[in-house]
Amino acid sequence: MLARPEQLLLALIGEAAIGYPAWLLAVIGHPVIWIGAAIAALDRRWNTGTALRRRAMGVALLALVAGGVGAIGWLIERWAGDGLAIGLVIVLATTGLAQRSLDDHVRAVAGPLLRGDVNAARAAVGRIVGRDTQALDENGIAVAATESLAESFCDGVVAPAFWFLIAGLPGLLVCKVVNTADSMIGHRDARHLHFGWAAARTDDLVNFIPARISGVLVCLAGLGGWATMVRDAGHHASPNGGWPEAAMAGVLERRLGGPVRYDGEPAHRAWLGDGPAPDAGDLQRALWVYRRACVLLWAIVGVLAWLL
């Protein structure tokens, strides 16, 4: 039977090469879409009552969805055993990784921006970030896309890979549940402040080690950025997001962060890094740093596969 590092290496390379086929997405959707639908349904039904009840039901939601999805992953691994069905585990693992889709989404921003088509770039970046994008200029678009690329390298690549190594397919799937729940309900708005508390805190725990690994990989891939990462990572509002973002800012020698708007309301964020804001060319450089960081991750997993 292939060991977990070998399975993960095949999943990483396979997902980067093929991604999730568009025809399959159209026919049956994607596991993350199914997970999101379950979370949304429970949000509508359970997110009512007092603050204490909302918090308790938020814990119940996370336990139910993560426990159910994790159990499915465990049963699949048990069924796969030592036979050819281990290929199913590898294929399912690719659905929890987002190397290619992240690259595709950021290229969809960088391409128009390099051509000077700010309107098309603004529309593309609006599909991957939560901030208001209507008034963003070239630099604002490049900042948003670069930050999304760096943070999603942790959430969509390193974290699921890390938890696959630790706990196999169940670990990867539970990681995706936690990440999806945090993105959907882990907000501090009035509706989700209490209901999303468990999702937000669990996401902090799940990504704690992967975020720091992500920052190190970005610095290694970019041959620098260490001082900026160490200095500025803690300034980020998230205990984890600052590590890959500050690392990317240091590698590019550009400044990320700063004030933005969400639903028309201003949000004040710390600055990460030094220098001017990134432009279209810097976003393209960030993509190449990201790609090299992915290859470094493959190399590390490959070494683990060889050693184990």
UniProtKB/TrEMBL annotation:
Species whose genome carries this gene: Blastomonas fulva
Membrane topology, as annotated: Multi-pass membrane protein
Pathway membership, UniProt: Cofactor biosynthesis; adenosylcobalamin biosynthesis
Transmembrane segments: 20-42, 54-76, 289-307
Name the UniProt record assigns to this protein: Cobalamin biosynthesis protein CobD
Gene: cobD
Similarity remark: Belongs to the CobD/CbiB family.
Alphabetical UniProt keywords: Cell membrane, Cobalamin biosynthesis, Membrane, Transmembrane, Transmembrane helix
Primary localization: membrane
Function: Converts cobyric acid to cobinamide by the addition of aminopropanol on the F carboxylic group.
HAMAP family per record: CobD_CbiB
